[in-house]
Amino acid sequence: MRTVVIGGGIVGLAVAREVQAADPACRVCVLEKDGGVGRHQSTRNSGVLHAGLYYKPGSLKARLATEGIRLMTRFCADKGIAHEICGKVVIATDSAEVGRLDELHRRGTANGLKGLRKLGGEELREIEPHAGGVAGVFVPEEGIVDYEAVCAAMKADIEASGGEVRTNSRVTGIGEGGPGWVLETPAGEVEAGYLINCAGLFSDRVAELAGIERKVRIVPFRGEYYKLGERASGLVRNLIYPVPDPSFPFLGVHFTRMIHGGVEAGPNAVLAFAREGYSWRDFSARDLADSLSFPGLWRFLGKHRGMCWQEVVRSLSRKRFCQSLQRLVPDVRESDLETGGAGVRAQAMHVDGTFIQDFWIEQRPKALHVLNAPSPGATASIAIAREIVSRIPRQG
To answer: For the chain, which residues score pLDDT lower than 70?
Structure first.
């Protein structure tokens, strides 16, 4: 019987492609609820190729990010997909952040990144002339890419090798049947010998359909971006990132040159009222009730209430958003900011209110569930796929 992958985002497509390559006879099938692939986290992100600077050495995320950027770069080169390894700078805006910057350099070195370089203020401005800050780290392996084109190429590979990608195929029920599973979709039942859940924002619900208790919950956080106008775009050469605040689980706003032109600034992080809620107007009663009924969210909000309130204010105030950006590039003005896009991060959370920081892959008989794969999931998607294929029991 065939392997079925639920979810046609970049991780699901990469997994299906890798499964099909490992066993061309299996005829993998991808079930995607939307009318096309990669419409959410996969393409509603900053378009960055992450090299693995931030992640705890020895973690799955660190290993797969470092391996993943090299695999993704090779894939893009082979397929003629627009990408560029342009490098980025991470900036300490004051002396209090220098120690944390040194820790990032240590982590990146431990994770196997090549060519990392500490920068003084003048060296920093040789790379990014308009950047503020007192010190920095240059990460030469980071880059930018067209993830929409990556998803399209992966889909084409799956179909060319005999696999199938079915869109408009939301899975509404999962039951055990015979040697495998029977999945209910609007077009009828689909049988699977092995099931791989890559449903992203809905991965916890799909796992529950397959009989797994939801001990962790996907809590959606929306990240909003601005575009820099023509004058300000010249203030940013490539990628300018902050030193993360260890008291808050989000990275913070940053500047990203886009692969097809222009510069984005953001994102912030606010609770989304729907799992696919890309503005304050987007609302799902079920999704919001799911978040608000989860004790972990209230514990998270209680622990980080000051920072969470600042994120809401920054979402509603262009002036406050601009002030955050000016810590990295002081010459940016409020008038330079044009409304950009937004994405929703599928963040898995423990009941105690802490985020699951690493990738979370849960294996069960005849099934495997990817329950946490936010950033750098897109960059690491091919490496994640190879990790998953290595865990699938071999038949015969």
So the answer is: 1, 247, 249, 395-396
Pairing of strands 135-139, 270-271: unpaired
pLDDT at position 396: 42
| Sign of the alpha-carbon torsion through 21, 70, 225, 98 | positive
List of residues 6+ apart from 195 with CB closer than 8 A: 3, 4, 6, 174, 180, 181, 183, 210, 366, 367, 368
Alpha carbon distance 6, 347 (integer Å): 18
Lookup result for tokens 């096309």: 36
Give me the pLDDT at residue 26, please: 85
Class of residue 78 by CB neighbours under 10 A (exposed 0-12, middle 13-18, buried 19+): exposed
Q: pLDDT value at position 395?
A: 59
Query: Which pairing describes strands 367-372 and 360-364: parallel, antiparallel, or unpaired?
Result: antiparallel
What is the C-alpha separation between 112 and 77, in angstroms, rounded?
22
Query: May I ask the CATH class of domain 219-355?
Result: alpha beta
Pinpoint the residues of the chain covered by CATH 3.50.50.60.
Answer: 3-44+148-216+357-391
In one-letter notation, the amino acid at residue 200 is G
pTM: 0.96
The pLDDT value given to residue 24: 84
Tokens (6 digits) for 69: 């950027």
Query: Which residues, in sequence order, are bridge partners of residue 120?
Result: 135
φ/ψ (deg, to 5) at 312? -65, -45
DSSP β-ladder status, 143-145 and 48-49: antiparallel
Q: What is the dihedral of CA 391, 174, 375, 352, to 10 degrees?
A: -100
**Cβ count within 10 A of residue 28:** 27
Task: Please report the pLDDT score of residue 218 as a whole number.
Answer: 97
Residue found by looking up tokens 């950009």 in the block? 340
Separation between Cα atoms, residue 207 and residue 203, nearest integer Å:
6
Structure tokens at 220: 């959606």
Q: What is the pLDDT of residue 296?
A: 96
Q: Where in the chain is the domain with CATH 3.30.9?
A: 219-355
Q: What dotted CATH number matches 3-44+148-216+357-391?
A: 3.50.50.60
Instruction: List Cβ neighbours of 74 (8 Å cut-off, separation of 6 or more).
Output: none
Output the pLDDT for position 275: 98
User: With contact defined as beta carbons under 8 Å apart, do 375 and 50 qualify?
Assistant: yes
In b/e form, how buried is each residue of 354-381, taking b as 16+ CB within 10 angstroms? ebeebbbbbeeebbbbbbbbbbbbbbbb
